Predict the 3D structure of the following.
Amino acid sequence: MMLESDELRKRPMNRRRAPRRISYSQRRDAPTGGEWRQKNQEQWRGQDKAQVSQVEEDDRHEQQGKETVPRGICRTMCPARELRVRETQNRLHRFEMLAGTERDRRPRGDPLRSVKEYSRPAAGKDSTNPNDLRPPAVLLKTVRYLIDDIAASPSLHPWTEVYSFVFDRLRGVKQDMIIQRVSGLDCVAILERTVRFLMYASYRLCGEPLRLYDPRINDTHLQENLSWLLDCYATGTERHPNQEEFQALGLLYNLGSARATQHIMELPERLRSTPAIRLSLSINRAFLERNPVRLLRLAQNLNFLQCCALHRHLVTCRRDLLLIFSHGYSSRNSRFPLDRLGQLLSLDASLTAQLCQAYGLEVNQGNQVVFSKAAFTEPEQGELHCKLYHNIVDEKQRDLTVVSIIHGCA
């Protein structure tokens, strides 16, 4: 028994043999190894070419879709569909209501006075419908209406409401221009009037409550439209007769800006040497050198709209003048004539006295200013009202009308 068990122990165990693997090259009629690799490489290349061609085709369709720019066919200032919707929702502005229906529960819109309002882009909203887009000629007609019949109207008031309406509708015009990629002379004509309107509003509504007029928002849109306009001048091939005016306005509005100064210095010599741009460069240099006396003296040569562009820098300029004089004439026995100081500040005597008192400077009974660097103090926020010191701008307006100012006929 022991022998049998030993023999069994020594005898190898029968294991199930794994099936023999036959490679692709060993099969019947199979190609050799080199032929197999070559065939597979050709097959892969074919697949790659098919995939690449498919991707290129998809990119081509996508690029064609991007290059398809919508063209508006709406011939009215407000699309008929929008007018019906706003009538139903009672969202008509009083400037757009049909005469005689203002007191109705749902006033009707006047197709000749209704203007497409600005609407924010929203998901699922088609903003490229040609029926809702106005072509460039209609957009320019809309801008002219907003200026001639709304902004310049003597019967529509208050002007803060006029500004709010025109501002919103001009945003709608800009939106249509962007969607259609409007360029050329019509684009320039619209942007020039928009910039003039916003620049005039920055002066006329200066000091109004924030709930009625926000200077920051106005400044943001003015800078955007001005930048777009200057780009049109740089890239277009047409001749633009108003380019000198707006190049100068851009620098005056952005005094001290390195970017604005560099832009002017890169202009062609024939344009940079024009009177308006040379004057704006001189004023900008005086501002950078903190020479308020020279700046205010040069400002006397500006026209009305140029003064509107400059006016937001006048507070800083006059403050610097009083600060410099407070150090230069700081003496116990030194007195400076009030009327002479008023000439330097481009203010009358009463406003000059108010401005001095706002900065802690004494004005004695003999109408003389007592400068003292120790007495000079910064006024509290809201105490100094820029609107009170607009003499230099007011004198330039004279008999100019809103229409002549915004259309550039001044």
